[in-house]
Design goal:
single chain; rod-shaped; about 0% strand; mainly alpha; Serine Threonine Protein Phosphatase 5, Tetratricopeptide repeat
Length: about 290
């Protein structure tokens, strides 16, 4: 009986210990489950952080790549723009040069045509046309030889027309047509004032002016002629004519001075007696 009771007690104690162990085991399992859940939550949080960080890093990497790509593309586009602009500028320079060459060629062709036409005027001895067109021709792009030929032709035309007008004036004087004579001699001097026949043309024009009653114009020409004429043979006649013109306008004192100058400067002149007679007459009456 005691043994049985002892066994029952043993069984009871084992049952209690077994229950206690089961409770502890459950507590441990629950604690472990809680730890696993906690670890799982922390892992999930870490995973989410990693995913977020990875996403941010990816986005940042993509943004950096896009920015870098844009910078690279912009740089290439800018470089291409610069190359295009450089090519365009070179093309424009080439086009300007071609236009300039074409303009020069056209100007040269026009000059050639005008020079050819002007040379025909020279050959045809159209002297007035040669003179009238010379200024325009001289502004063209001519060769040195052409320019020299045209210049000589121009000077020769002036000299020829001046000489022709001079001789026409002398013809008019011989026939007493003083108005036509004055016009022809004025045209002669206009054509070429420094011609070799210039002093004689001035003297003869002064004669015509005096005959036309335009003594003051004649005196103005004669004063310069008697003071600075290159033709000494004209100076004595011009001086005596000056005195006569001064007498015509009753400039007595001027006439006396001119006659005294004539007698002093040209004592061997064939008109010396005439000059002395006029001077004596002026001194007597004026």
């Amino acid at each position: 009986m005691d043994d049985f009771g002892t066994e029952i007690e043993e069984v009871k104690r084992e049952i209690v210990e077994s229950r206690s162990l089961t409770i502890k085991t459950n507590n441990l399992v629950n604690a472990l489950s809680a730890d696993v859940n906690s670890i799982s939550k922390r892992q999930q949080a870490n995973d989410r952080k990693m995913v977020l960080n990875s996403a941010v890093a990816y986005v940042a990497a993509v943004v950096i790549m896009m920015v870098g790509a844009k910078v690279l593309v912009d740089a290439r586009v800018e470089a291409e723009h610069l190359r295009t602009k450089d090519r365009r500028d070179k093309l424009e320079d080439i086009q300007k040069e071609l236009d300039s060459i074409a303009a020069r060629e056209e100007a040269h062709a026009r000059s050639e045509r005008k020079a050819e036409a002007y040379f025909k005027l020279i050959v045809q001895k159209k002297r007035r046309d040669v003179i009238e067109q010379y200024e325009a021709i001289s502004k063209l792009d001519l060769r040195k030889t052409e320019r020299l030929v045209f210049q000589r032709a121009y000077e020769q035309a002036r000299n020829d027309l001046s000489l022709m007008s001079y001789h026409a004036g002398l013809d008019h004087i011989r026939t007493g047509r003083w108005h036509e004579a004055e016009e022809s001699l004025a045209d002669s001097l206009k054509m070429k004032s420094d011609a070799s026949h210039g002093p004689e043309a001035r003297y003869q024009r002064s004669r015509a002016l005096q005959k036309l009653g335009r003594q003051r114009e004649a005196i103005e020409i004669l004063v310069r002629l008697t003071e600075a004429s290159a033709d000494k043979e004209v100076m004595d006649d011009a001086t005596l004519l000056l005195a006569n013109a001064q007498i015509d306008i009753k400039a007595w004192n001027d006439a006396k001075g001119t006659l005294r100058s004539f007698i002093r400067r040209f004592p061997k002149s064939t008109s010396i007696l005439e000059a002395r007679s006029k001077l004596g007459e002026l001194q007597l009456y004026h």
